[in-house]
Specification:
With 68 residues, this protein is mainly alpha-helical. 53% of the residues lie in helices and 6% in strands. It contains 4 helices and 2 strands; from the N terminus they run E-H-H-H-H-E.
Length: 68
């Protein structure tokens, strides 16, 4: 996948938030969390929920990786 959520996991560690807490804060389904863990695509709505919960921007939680 050309995207990765490594920044998201780092942010959670820095803020002392567990993945379970994020799931509850952003009202994410277990399936969405699985996609995030596997660096798969999630909807823009889910990214907005995460950013709202963590008070951040998209660039703070996701990276585009050009695999050329």
């Amino acid at each position: 996948m050309p995207i990765e959520y490594k920044k998201l996991w780092i942010m959670l560690i820095q803020k002392g938030i567990t993945k379970q807490q994020l799931r509850q804060m952003a009202e994410l389904s277990p399936a969405t969390m699985t996609k995030l863990n596997k660096d798969q695509y999630v909807s823009m709505e889910m990214l907005v929920r995460i950013c709202r919960a963590l008070e951040c921007n998209f660039g703070d939680i996701i990276d585009y990786i050009d695999n050329k």
